[in-house]
Amino acid sequence: MPGTAPRLTPSTVGATRPPLDERPPVGIVHLGIGAFARAHQAVHTVRALEAEPGPWGICGIAPHRRAAIEALGPQGGLYTVVERGPEDDRAEVFAPLREVVPGGETPTRLADPQVHVVTLTITERGYARGPGGGLVDDDTMRADLAGGSPRTAIGMLARGLQNRMAGGQAGGITVISCDNVPRNGKVLRRLVHDFCDRLPGGEGAPLAAWLEAHARFPCTMVDRVVPTPSDEDREAVRRLLGVDDHAAVAGEPFSQWVLEDDFAGPRPAWERGGVEIVADSAPWELLKLRLLNASHCGLAYLGGPHGATTVAEALRDDGVAQDVRRLLDEDLAPTVPPPPGVDVAAYIETMLARFANPRLGHPLQQIATDGSEKLAARMFPAARERLRAGAEPRWIALVVAAWGRHLAGGPGPEVRDPRADVLRAALATPGGPQRRAAAFLGVRDVFGDELAESAVFRDLVAEGMARLEGG
After folding, report:
1. Residue 222, strand partner residues
2. Closest by alpha carbon to 174, among 149, 211, 205, 202?
3. Widest CA span of the chain, in angstroms?
4. 26-31 and 57-62: which strand pairing?
5. What is the four-CA torsion angle of 121, 123, 125, 131, rounded to 10 degrees?
6. pLDDT (tens digit per residue) in 411-465
7. Is residue 423 classed exposed, middle or buried when 0-12, 13-18 and 19+ CB atoms within 10 A define those classes?
8. pLDDT tens track for 185-234
9. What is d(CA 453, CA 455) in angstroms, rounded to the nearest whole number?
10. In what order do the strands lie in the sheet with 26-31?
11. CA end-to-end span of the chain, whole Å?
């Protein structure tokens, strides 16, 4: 129970981690210091510093919620990562953080000449993209463009880079997206430049020119399953270390980070911390998005109505497992050219073994949230490719039908999606599966013109709806 062990601080863990004043100075600002960042990017950075010390402490930015500040502040930035293997847990305390501050501090922190790297984990929704791929045009974004304390992640980043430019002493900076967005670095660069272009009175032109000369936005692929933190994680820390950690996170043993070799200045020796530095991360991004992330969505929308609440539970349902296996083998794998040195079939087997880890507890609710963002990145491009090749993406269509059932309020995870209302209205179209499938796919700012206009895909989605409605 909470309160039965001393709180995690440098003093309660003794010499296993250094106190704040002995940690390296801040060289990295991380925007979105949530569970994934602490269990992935920060861990790889710690491993790199263990191999090759340097000035690469992290300033964690909590853009909107104070939970991370309230959890990490009293602990001096320390936190535990519980590594959940199939058989048992191991716990390790990490201390990469020099400070954790609110989002409003971003512009000041990015102007610091000692900072050379910005990393981001802000989720797909945090990129605030509109239907055309540029920035969304809404009240919050317009307020950020007008001035004042920025509220969007892109606004925080752009205003911080503007401060850096104005200072004139800070030099180049590398901005690294660590989110599951295809070609995430290119997307982030476009959005920041779009912010510059939309600034009033030509204010953004000098910043855009400065970015061209002094900033780099490498693409990256990240992979580690990190479930939403739970009381079980804190209990594991109390059991294994005898302390109460309010910022504990859990993750699977597997962790991968593939990062393009495109930097504007100094960086940690990440290659000594398990990071793969490559010329082009696109093949690895596609592999992960199309196989791991897309099949996760399949498990969430197909498995949730069968009573599963975690990935492992969904995979234990023979029918769901068979559907997801066919989704992978017949619809998704054919669209994934193997990265150098990777066997796609072996990757799938390793991935499914990771999914089956019964002790990870990766919640389907976490995966099912924001399906309109996730499926657009993970699954719809594969459907279009298969249709162009003359194939029938039957299993992708089944997942789309299952997502529709989810949006309509069927059994399974709670609906949390920014486009839920308009999609739900389309699904309520009177008539049978054909009419409802056509109306659903007709929400073109979600599905795009090609899927909306494909009679083949419409028929497959209608077939999937009929199958799911039949039990």
Report:
1. 257
2. 211
3. 68
4. parallel
5. 80
6. 899 999 999 999 999 999 999 999 999 999 999 999 999 999 999 999 999 999 9
7. buried
8. 999 999 999 999 999 999 999 999 999 999 999 999 999 999 889 999 99
9. 6
10. 97-102, 57-62, 26-31, 117-120, 173-177, 215-216
11. 42
For residues 120 and 167, the answer to whether their CB atoms sit within 8 Å is no
Give me the CATH topology for the region 14-278.
Rossmann fold (3.40.50)
Domain spanning 282-469: which CATH class is it, in words? mainly alpha
> Per residue in 79-106, is it b (16+ CB within 10 Å) or e — as a string?
bbbbbbeeeebebebbbbbbbbbebebb
Structure tokens at 313: 């539970």
Angle between helices 344-355 and 294-303 (to 10 degrees): 40
- How high does pLDDT run on average in the chain? 94
**Phi, psi dihedral angles at 278 (to 5 degrees):** -130, 165
Range(s) of the chain covered by CATH 1.10.1040.10: 282-469
| Residue position matching structure tokens 């498990």 | 299
As given in the structure block, the two tokens for residue 142 are: 């317009």
In order, the DSSP letters of 387-401 are HHTT---HHHHHHHH
Residue type, 141: M
**Tokens found for residue 72:** 């990490």
Tokens 């997801």 sit at which residue? 324
